[in-house]
Amino acid sequence: MKTSEQRNIAIIGGGASGIFAAIRCAEVAKEKNININIKVFEASKRFLKKVKISGGGRCNVTHHIFDSKDLVLNYPRGKKELLSPFIKFQASDTVKWFEDRGVKIKHEKDGRMFPVTNNSETIIDCFMNEAEKYKVQLVTQSNIKNIRKLENGRLSLLINKNKNFIADSVLIATGSMPSGYRLAKTLGHTITEIAPSLFTFKIEDLILENLAGTSFTNSSLTLKIDSAKEFYQKGPLLITHWGLSGPALLKLSAWAAREMMHSNYKAKIIINWLGLESINEVRNMINNIKNKNTKAKIGNAYPIKITKRFWLQLLIKSGIKKEKNWSEINKKEFNIIVTNLFSCELEVLGKSRFKEEFVECGGINLKEINFKTMESKICSGIYFSGEIMDIDGITGGFNFQNAWTSGWIAGSHMPLKKDI
Ligand SMILES: Cc1cc2nc3c(=O)[nH]c(=O)nc-3n(C[C@H](O)[C@H](O)[C@H](O)COP(=O)(O)OP(=O)(O)OC[C@H]3O[C@@H](n4cnc5c(N)ncnc54)[C@H](O)[C@@H]3O)c2cc1C
Questions:
Q1: Backbone angles phi, psi at 309, to 5 degrees
Q2: What average pLDDT does the segment 313-339 reach?
Q3: Pick from 401, 405, 408, 416: which is nearest to 61 by CA?
Q4: Of 353, 380, 402, which marks where a domain is finished?
Q5: Which residues contact 332 (CB under 8 A, 6 or more apart)?
Q6: Does the beta carbon of 199 lie inside 6 Å of ligand 1?
Q7: Which residue among 78, 120, 229, 331 is least enclosed by CB atoms within 10 Å?
Q8: How many C-alpha atoms does 104 have within 13 Å on its Cβ side?
Q9: Domain of 320, in residue numbers
Q10: Which pLDDT band holds residue 420 (cuts at 50, 70, 90)?
């Protein structure tokens, strides 16, 4: 094939990564004057479905960490591999990419970044306009069932049951859909163990009763699974109707995703509600309250950083009547209060989905991908990007950043690939 002949590029999956890659691919082809035909095949009726519902409908596009070395620390899987891709296209590039196209991005106190419109449709409209500008062909209801390598090195795609498309390069950007893993397997790839990530914990305990909505800004959490494995996180924690959620807990779920699945989501969580450094600090704090309030009822004098409702619940769990005076609290009761504040041990009984964002951990074995180009090391002409790879981030915009970065790199290289 001569370079003047048209190159066919197929992108499987019209989600965040596939669409971003398609736009980049078209842009590079235009810059380099390469004659190209880009088709995005989407199995369902709509493109960018997850983008639409992401971030509670606001689309948390990325995170306000503009140093690649710090950015990678937010990926329980893929940390090492993402470093060089992020040097080429990281969170600040994402912001610039959108702003160059008229979409203003803001960041919130916790670092999450959203379009200023607070509406994911803004992101979708931006992508659709770009795709139209570059004449990227977007086809829906086109489920890719099979990919076959032809003798001439090109790739034949089976669309639905009876149509074929012959491509020079193919990007598989099917997210966490099993069909994508199947396609990759038939081409010789291995898939690492799949497990849900970013989930909340089901816990039934007196201390949480009727407290849904209560939050703690700086808790410390230790998760013990099968008594051998321990995970630790610090940060905001939220009590929900059926257990615990909040940024620190979601991070814990991401780092422990596989181990939690193996233990069938049974574990022990030890909560330091106020995140104080040592048990002595808690002792001193409670001692001060006790000494200053000897005549007050224990239910009415409590640490300022917690709510009265939580304190009363903590007293119930500690078996102490709220009507008692502080002066009547004996050493044993004092110690129970300190323990329940500093290292409150609760049983995790199961998991539930975090509605604002969830991902699967596991996917294409990262050793089988060349991260300079996103091309498969096993099957030439095949590329991967987004969640199909064994890469996942904690909550906060990191999963989209992986989708944009890997899509951008794949899109940058697919039009340039030398003839086979
Ligand atoms: C409710 C929710 C909210 C989220 N919010 C955020 C957020 O705010 N910020 C963030 O960073 N991350 C968020 N995420 C995670 C983020 O959406 C994903 O990590 C990201 O969409 C992955 O992009 P992708 O392109 O790899 O896969 P997807 O976006 O899942 O796209 C894959 C596409 O491939 C199609 N497909 C699959 N198989 C085939 C096939 N055989 N043929 C053709 N098409 C196929 C699918 O239909 C789908 O449209 C959220 C996830 C969920 C579920």
A1: -60, -40
A2: 96
A3: 401
A4: 353
A5: none
A6: no
A7: 331
A8: 4
A9: 199-353
A10: very low
| 1 belongs to a structural domain | no
Is the CB–ligand 1 distance for residue 177 below 6 Å? yes
Per-residue pLDDT tens digits for 335-384? 999 999 999 999 999 999 887 888 999 999 999 999 999 999 999 999 99
226 confidence band (pLDDT: 50, 70, 90): confident
Full-prediction pTM beyond 0.85?
yes
Residue 82: in which H helix or E strand, if any? helix 79-88
Evaluate whether 270 touches 224 at the Cβ level (below 8 Å): yes
Expressed in angstroms and rounded, the spacing between residue 179 Cα and the centre of ligand 1 is 13
Q: What are phi and psi of 356, to 5 degrees?
A: -75, -25
**Distance between Cα 297 and ligand 1 center (Å):** 54
**Position 2 in a domain:** no
**Cα 208 from Cα 200, distance rounded (Å):** 14
Contacts of 409 (CB under 8 A, 6+ apart): 85, 88, 89, 371, 372, 373, 374, 385
DSSP 187-200: TT--BPPPEEESEE
Write down the residue that tokens 């609290």 correspond to: 329
Distances (CA, A) of 387 to 175, 201, 226, 317, 358: 4, 23, 29, 42, 11
